[in-house]
Write a structure and sequence with these properties.
Layout lengths: L2 E4 L9 H4 L9 H10 L4 E5 L5 E10 L6 E9 L8 H15 L5 E7 L3 H9 L3 E7 L17 E7 L17 E3 L5
Parallel strand pairs: 4-5, 6-8
Antiparallel strand pairs: 1-2, 2-3, 3-4, 5-7, 6-7
């Protein structure tokens, strides 16, 4: 049985099996350490019984007023450990902390528009597309659907504080904004 535990700084030396994946966004050491020092209660890793890291999630709390929310900056699982609900469990823990500790209105994340597997997983967890962000991940040019392949969907899931579900919308895929319009 694997264990979900707080992400520690020395985990940075042990997670290459997770980060060496085409879908995983990687960052510099300072970036990870900033998250661990500011939002340690929103950063977790999943560890196998043999000590091998299976996945991790990095999150933060940000925004003001009704835009105050938890944000999933990165959630990733090593390819050999996928389809075991590890990402779902890590997201649920971050959602719980965002709701109970930070009193956020929603949790959001960004996902590449062409990452259909991840989008389906997030929708199955209750997230919905709030808007499409043009060239969020850069610009690789126009893809086969006539849209930039490096666009992102901003996906959101309302928390208990958002009783009227004002943080989500039904037509999010049609709402297109520039990467400069999001913080």
């Amino acid at each position: 049985m694997s264990v979900l535990r707080p992400f520690k700084a020395n985990d940075l030396f042990r997670f290459n099996n997770i980060n060496l994946d085409v879908w995983t966004e990687t960052y510099g050491v300072t970036f990870y350490l900033t998250y661990l020092s500011r939002w340690s209660d929103l950063c977790f890793t999943q560890e196998a019984p043999n000590g091998r890291l299976q996945g991790y999630i990095l999150g933060k709390a940000e925004g003001v007023q009704t835009e105050w929310h938890g944000h999933i900056t990165a959630v990733t699982v090593a390819p050999e450990y996928r389809r075991l609900s590890l990402a779902r469990n890590m997201c649920q823990r971050l959602e719980f902390v965002s709701d109970e500790v930070y009193k956020g209105w929603f949790v959001d994340l960004y996902v590449r528009c062409n990452n259909v597997s991840a989008i389906n997983m997030y929708e199955g967890m209750g997230y919905s597309v709030y808007r499409r962000v043009r060239e969020y991940y850069g610009n690789l040019g126009i893809g086969k659907d006539g849209r930039d392949e490096e666009d992102a969907f901003d996906m959101r899931k309302p928390l208990s504080r958002d009783e009227l579900q004002q943080s989500i919308r039904t037509n999010g895929r049609d709402m297109i904004v520039s990467a400069h319009d999001v913080s």
